[in-house]
Amino acid sequence: IPQVLGLLVWALIADTTYHLHAAYGWVMFVSIFFWIVTVLFFVTYLLQLQLKFYMIPWPLVLMIFNAVATVLYITAFVTCAAAVQPTSWRQWDYNRRAAASFFACLVMIAYGASTFFSFRAWKGLGSNAATSQVTDHA
């Protein structure tokens, strides 16, 4: 979910005259950087490359990544929302920036939820039906 929503954030900002407002440079950096890194993590797990690099504590790495992404997306969301000018002379810029603020909030929430689940995976608090069946009968 963060991949799609993050793509929407930076696509909406990129389609405006963001270069005229310094605040949107930060929003662009955060959204593009975390979109690229999230896609790289997704491909890593899709191709099961994390099994080849077993010495890396993947649950801890993902928890730290998601926590950092959440914090920086909070700043990007606040920056983007504060920089939206409802009296803008370009109505399409206002609409796109307002939509980008909304989607930045959704991405922030998605990364926050991912941080929670990454924390549970790191601590070993989560289990599924298969693991509970195996541990009950062993």
UniProtKB/TrEMBL annotation:
Record's bilayer topology term: Multi-pass membrane protein
Biological-process GO terms, alphabetical: myelination
Gene Ontology annotations for the cellular component aspect, listed alphabetically: apical plasma membrane; myelin sheath
Single GO MF descriptor: structural constituent of myelin sheath
Chain ranges of the MARVEL domain: 1-123
Keywords, in A-Z order: Cell membrane, Membrane, Transmembrane, Transmembrane helix
Superkingdom, natural source: Eukaryota
A Pfam short name: MARVEL
Subcellular location: Apical cell membrane; Myelin membrane
InterPro entries assigned: MAL, Marvel, MARVEL-CKLF_proteins
Membrane-spanning residues: 26-47, 59-84, 99-119
Family under the similarity heading: Belongs to the MAL family.
Subunit field text: Forms oligomers.
Record-linked PANTHER family: MARVEL-CONTAINING POTENTIAL LIPID RAFT-ASSOCIATED PROTEIN, PLASMOLIPIN
Protein name, entry field: Plasmolipin
